[in-house]
User: What shape does this take?
Amino acid sequence: MSSFSVVYPPSNTFINTYASDTARSIFTWTKSSSHPSIRYKWKIRKDGTSVDLSYNSNNNGSDSVIILRNSFLDSLAMSFGGGSDTVSCLWKVFSYNGTDSLSSQNQNFIFIVRHSVSIKVISSSVPVEFKLFQNYPNPFNPVTKISFDIPVRHSGEGRNPVVKLIIFDALGREVETLVNQQMNPGSYNVSWDASQNTSGVYFYRMTAEGFSDTKKLLLLK
Assistant: This one.
């Protein structure tokens, strides 16, 4: 076996998850050998700890890739004690030839960002501009949906924009963050369950890459 490296996702990548997230994340690395007997295990640990969780790569370990549901990554972050927070993790790969093992030359950081709400894709068609829509229904009790559009990336860094969608009360105090993540171009909606909140006027504000819009919503119980 020869030295090999983990490749994708690169260090400091943020992966946004929630419990029922069916999206998939792909982890890849170079091969340590072309021999068909070589097997790989993908390993992950919480940053600052020394215990690895180990999983076979695709096709029972024969591929230099592993594809995982984001809901699985979400459960890993929860097992690491992530709660609803961002969990910093390290991932690496080991190759095996039946007798010996070899670790990848490098290991990459990922940040698993756990969310309590589901962000649903309405359309993958690329909108021409950022847009925040009026929630529906409005007035509502206790759940309403908020839709928004994300256009093709504008930033010079070539990265998707970080989108924030935050609920405020009538006094301008932050009530709940519904979205805070990088997002691909497309049309989305997110539900807000206000069952734990009192009746009254609330506001929701979306900000993203120079865009900002605020709208009012009314909770009636």
User: Anything to note?
Assistant: The chain is about 5% helix and 50% strand. The helical segments are 70-79. The domain at 6-114 is CATH 2.60.40.10 (Immunoglobulin-like). The chain has a mean pLDDT of 88.
